[in-house]
Each structure stands twice: as C-alpha cells, then as structure tokens.
Design brief:
The structure is a homodimer. Chain A is an all-alpha fold. Chain A contains ten helices and no strands. The longest helix of chain A has 25 residues. Chains A and B meet through helix 7, helix 8, helix 9 and helix 10 of A and helix 7, helix 8, helix 9 and helix 10 of B. The structure holds a DNA duplex.
DNA sequence: GTCTATAATCGGATAGAC
DNA sequence: GTCTATCCGATTATAGAC
C-alpha cells in the first residue's frame, strides 16, 4: 500500500510536469487533456483519477510551474543581481523546459475566473518576497515591486515579439534597469 | 451605391468595436462569434460577409483596439509624462471601454500563431515610436523601450491581481519609475 | 488506476431564403 | 447583407471492462 500511494503521487507529478510545460507554452485553451496525458505517458481515461477537471489541473499546474521556475533561479544564483540576470536571460526566454508562469500567463490570467487570479496573486506575492530575501537591507519593498514588473513584463513582452533582436534588447535593458534601481527613481 | 458601401463599412466598424472590447477583456478563446455579433446588434450569419474567419477578425480587432487606445492617450495628454500617467492610471486599469491590447494580450499573443505575433510586434514598434515622438530629444530609444516595458508590464500585471490595493500600487510605482528614468539607469 | 468507447456539448463555418 | 437552420469537428467528461 505504501508504494501504491507513492506511485500515484509520482504519476500525479508526471501529469503536473507535463501540464506545467504545455500550459506555460500554449495557454489554457489550446492545451487538451489528451495532449497532457499523452505527454505524461498515459491516456485520457486515467486523468480523472488524479484531477476533477481541467481547471483543477490548470490551477495545480501553475503552482507547480512556479515552484520549478523558482528552483531554477535558486540553483544558478545566490544574490539578487544574478537572479535578475538569470530570469531575464536569453536562456530563460528560449527555454524548452522550465518557464515562469508569472510571465507566460500574465495576461491570460486576467481573462480567467477569480480562483485562478487568486492563485496568481498569491504566487506573485511569493515572487516578490523571494526577491526581497535575496536583496540586502537597503532595498525597499517598492523597489522589489518595480523589479518584478521589469522581470515579468520584460520577459512576457519579449516572448510575444517575432523580432528576436528587439526581444533580447528588451531583456537586456530590463535587466540593467532592474539591477540599477535606486530608491530615488521611484519617488513622485 | 455610395451609401451602401459606407453602410457596410460602418457595420464592419461596429463589429470591430465590439470585438476589440470583448477580445481585450476576455482573450481570444473565451469570446464567441455569436457574442461579438450580438454586441454589434447582428446575428452570427452576417459575420462572414465581413470577415473570413475568427482569426481574421481577431487580427483586425487588435489593430483597431490599439488605434482606439492611442487616441485615448492623445486626447488627454500632449507630453510624455502625462501619456505615461494616463496609461498607468486606475482609470485605464478599470476602463469599461477602451483598453490597450498591448497589455491585455501580452502573454496571449505568445500562444497564438505567427501572424498574430507579427501584428503585435508591428504595433509594439508603433507604440514605442509614439512615445518617442512625445519625448524630448534627450530621451534615448533605450529609455523609451524600458518605459514601454513598465507601462505594458505594469498594466498587465495589475490587471491579473485580485488584490486591488497592490495593483494600484504597482501602477503608481511603474509610473514614477518610467517618468524618472535616466539614461544612466540603463547602463550595464 | 488505467484503459477503450461513448455521451454530451460547444462553437466555428456553411447553405439557402429573403 | 442579413437572417435562420444546419453541419461538423473538437473536446470535456463519464461509463464500464480489466
């Protein structure tokens, strides 16, 4: 019974991983349950043993994707500047595996129902809190918020442009601005 | 024949207006042709006399929405700072009529096909060009790009948060940062 | 828990009358 | 050009065997 439970959990994680990948790449509506289950190595019928609906999966997948993205940042850099650089890198922009759902779904979420928006809001607060922990004490909450806008906005924008030269320029400029932000720049 | 043509054009514009409103509010997939035509005061059957497909309408509606949003900005402010303030205002955030598609669809577009992305890219270049015309000669292209990230990213993010206090704080901080941007802040 | 088969629905697109 | 009626494909969700 013990490994049956862990096996189910493992399967669930595999589904979540596939869903996180597909939803961040294609959004909610363009992804089918078929597609997710196939990517997880199963068929559609098995889906409802793990999740009660597609929306249910979506909500769980966003959280899962955010955790993966945070781990990816943590692996590579220990201070705020490298976290910013890592997030706003060409690597992240073109990443085939881990992508931050905060950027990939920033406008999608505005069209979704309130439950999804609440999850997104919670994740965003976690995002800024995480940045703040990496920063030194001289960094204000307000600075962190602006850095978040530059990170999420810069990446989201870059992902939607076909002009890849321009996209990478936007990443670079957003990175520099976020890293150089001073408390002074935010005043009225 | 003359006013028959203008009547058709007028109807087309009414459809486009309804579509611009619905698509920026709900995204592509959650909007039905039924819904658009009903909002335009017609029925579904009449749709295909004006557009060849839903995607065709979507592409035209994004452009139409961008023009409306630009006009809205132009009406209210003549200089760069008031354009930024207007764009990143609580008014624009909660607007029931005109909304900027660049912010409302920034991550949606990344999931769409290339044609839509190309249109979005073209509109973005128009967006930055417009900002630059409002700015004085001391403003560099790079500054304008960062201002665009703060405007589009700030608004998109604010729209997805259920915590409206936080959303308006993000607007305010993004606005201040965009207005105070100096060439120095963008350097490596 | 996972499979195959099927029900039920929804929405884009077309046909033909007016 | 606009309407009503209809077709058709796609997809979520369920039923029942293993």
């Amino acid at each position: 019974m013990a490994w049956k439970e862990t096996h189910k959990l493992e399967t669930r994680q595999r589904i979540l991983g596939a869903a996180a990948d597909l939803f961040t790449r294609k959004g909610f509506n363009l992804v089918g349950i078929d597609e997710v289950m196939l990517a997880a190595g199963l068929t559609r019928g098995a889906f409802y043993a793990h999740f009660s609906s597609k929306i249910d999966l979506y909500e769980a997948a966003i959280i899962s994707a955010a955790i993966s993205a945070a781990e990816r940042i943590n692996e590579q850099g220990k201070d705020l500047n490298s976290a910013i650089a890592n997030y706003l890198s060409a690597d992240h922009l073109h990443s085939e595996d881990v992508r931050c759902p905060m950027a990939c779904l920033v406008s999608d979420v505005a069209h979704d129902d309130q439950r999804v928006q609440e999850i997104y809001t919670r994740l965003f607060k976690g995002f800024t809190k995480h940045l703040q922990q990496l920063a030194d004490e001289t960094t204000s909450e307000d600075q962190t918020l602006v850095q978040s806008v530059l990170m999420i906005g810069g990446l989201a924008l870059a992902r939607s442009l076909t002009d890849k030269k321009l996209a990478e320029k936007i990443l670079l400029l957003s990175k520099n601005t976020a890293q150089n932000l001073t408390a002074n720049a935010l005043k009225e």
